[in-house]
What we know:
By secondary structure, the chain is mostly helical. The chain has helices at 3-6, 15-18, 23-50, 57-63, 65-78, 82-91. Helix 3 runs antiparallel to helix 5 (65-78) and helix 3 packs across helix 6. The longest helix is centred in the middle third of the chain and has 28 residues, at 23-50.
Amino acid sequence: MSERNSSLNIAPIDMDVMYRGNIYRNVSAISKRSNQIEAEICEKFHSEMSEYMDIDYLSAADSGDNGVRIKVSKYFESLQKSSIVAQNEFLNGEIVIEDGE
């Protein structure tokens, strides 16, 4: 087992919590929240990377900014998937589903 997989927190899910209400509505809410989280992460990533963007790539490699860009990219790659975060928020009751009626 790799080092990255050994640190995952894997626990069984209480299916009674997952099935409260309409399952389609629950999955839809988790999906929408996942998209929101992904958009927030992308926005943060682009704002971080914009600090180190140069028009001339060769001069950036010489100045050491390329190493910083790699570190920023690796940090954002190491973040948990947005779908997992959204699912955990749902299971913890942090996602409110409003009836459209």
